[in-house]
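Async update (no meeting this week)

Hi team, since we skipped the sync, here's where things stand on the single-chain job. The sequence we agreed to prioritize is pasted below, unchanged from the tracker. I ran it this morning and attached the output directly underneath so nobody has to dig for it. Comments welcome in thread, and please keep replies under the output.
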Amino acid sequence: MSADALQPEELAQALEMIVADIRTGSLSARTQDDFYWTILEADELYDVTREPATYGIGSLSDDIESVRRLLQERDVPGLGLAMIEKVLPVLSNIYHRVYGEPV
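Output:
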């Protein structure tokens, strides 16, 4: 098994742990922390040799609205993976509010 790529079973286990944490508490995103920084260009996101030039501002309330809308469109191919972009900022907000700094 390659150390540089997560295998599908490893990703599934990680997602199961996330779901278990969500279901054990009454956690919710705080929309008072609504805005956050984001890097807009995918090429820049993973090129750590240069400082990104295309910063943007994301919105947790927009992300939450997008997740709710996407949940209604269950027949779209790849929808689960597309939803990750909207769910990750919400989960990150919950984690930082509950636990502080990441491990």
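Quick observations from my side:
The chain has a mean pLDDT of 83.
The longest strand covers residues 35-39.
Reply here if anything looks off.
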